[in-house]
Amino acid sequence: MNKNSFYKAVAPGQKKAFSPWTKFKATVVCNSHIFLSAAIATILFSVPFYGYLVNNTRTTDMWVHLEYAQQIGALSDIKSPHFLYQLLLKLLHFIFGISYENATVLALALCYGGMAAILCYSFHKTSVNKSKFWILVLIPSTVLIASHIFIQSAFQHNFYYGYVAPIVYHNPTQNLSKLISLLIMTIYYSVIISNSATRKGLLKLALPILIILSALAKPSFLIVFLPCAAAVELYRFIFSSRRQAVYNFILIAMPAVTALIFQYLMTFSSPQAGNGLAFAPFLVYGGASDVISKLPGALLFPLVTLCIAVATRRLTPRLIFSWFMLVVGLGISFCVVESGPRMMQGNFAWTGQTVIFLLYAESAFFLFSQPFNRAWAGWTALIPHVACGVVWFIAPTLFSADLFL
After folding, report:
1. What is d(CA 182, CA 317) in angstroms, rounded to the nearest whole number?
2. pLDDT of 43-72, one tens digit each?
3. Residues 207-226, buried b or exposed e (16+ Cβ, 10 A)?
4. Residues 6+ apart with CB under 8 A from 340
5. 348 close to 220: Cβ distance less than 8 angstroms
6. Rounded to whole angstroms, how far apart are CA atoms 271 and 33?
């Protein structure tokens, strides 16, 4: 049998009929690709996380969250509304008997390994190059290492300032949140948007659980996903199936709203926390002109991919939803702040970072579904992002974060 015969196109209306042995081989190949991709990413991304840990002071985010985990001995010790990362550190510390420092590196490397596995799975399902082993195994790590093109801030000793970046190594809760949000979006696209996944019932039941875990990791994803998903179901309610729209809305909104209300009350329960939220456009980004001028450096790859999709008339519902989330997410990120002493911490900036990361993943997914002669411009646009990502990747192993953050 030809090695590509499993993936040959089937004529319209014709059912695929594969032998059990063929299906078994395809499953083994797919799972081996996913495992290798996850293993490579886990080993690879342990490097920058180790660098951030050993080359920086105990006032940085990574050390702050590590010490918080050490302080939790009972439920009463939990002071932050998002504490899933701390529980993960304690679990790794307990199971493997390793130090909290090693648990930090392992936990964050596993987050990237998990993201690589999800991307590899998605690419495997859609790729027109399924026989290209190295592409399916290595491209997930390449997409994950891609950064914003920070030419405008390269000589300011701050690669990050004014940009909405797809990656951030120094904040551990954001990396855990990205893993969960990518898994949520993969399931959401399959069972809600595309309506094509097998075992839809089981996957739909996983959504509320993952939504709650996402809130406990960091609420930055949920505050943009909830209104965007609600808008989709409103459209479905008006123009399509009202029953399905109501069911989907309840499935998503109930856990999301409950978790966000809990976190809001826990965050602003004390008088010192401020009065809640405030509208302050571009305050934490240093002004509108700075951040808007730097947006092309963050969005080159997705913009070129969007142009390909529009020019070839292959714009998919998934890509449309990803861009919809980007617009809503950037609006929240640019304009909403916490009132009180945490105003300049820019906690809503993580929402913009999340939606750009998810747009990178979806843009790569779209390009994988196209033949190379149609997608080459998109992959070419990814190259400068990867080049800057490599610099960002190496920097924490050589320098203190004060030099580039």
Report:
1. 17
2. 999 998 988 887 766 667 888 899 999 999
3. bbebbbbbbbbbbbbbbbbb
4. 272, 273, 274, 275
5. yes
6. 52
> What does pTM read for this prediction?
0.89
Domain chopping of the chain, boundaries? 19-403
Q: Residue 115 and residue 45: Cα distance in Å, rounded?
A: 11
Report CA 52 to chain centroid distance, whole Å: 20
Is 363 in contact with 122 (CB distance < 8 Å)? no
Give the number of other Cβ atoms within 10 Å of residue 319's Cβ.
Answer: 20
Are 362 and 319 within 8 A, CB to CB? Answer: yes
Annotate 67-80 with b (16+ C-beta within 10 A) or e (fewer): ebbeebeeeeeeee
- pLDDT tens digits for 230-253? 999 999 999 988 898 998 899 999
Is 212:251 a contact under the CB 8 Å cutoff? no
Q: Which two tokens stand for residue 272?
A: 């010192």
Of 235, 226, 232, nearest in space to 192 by CA: 232
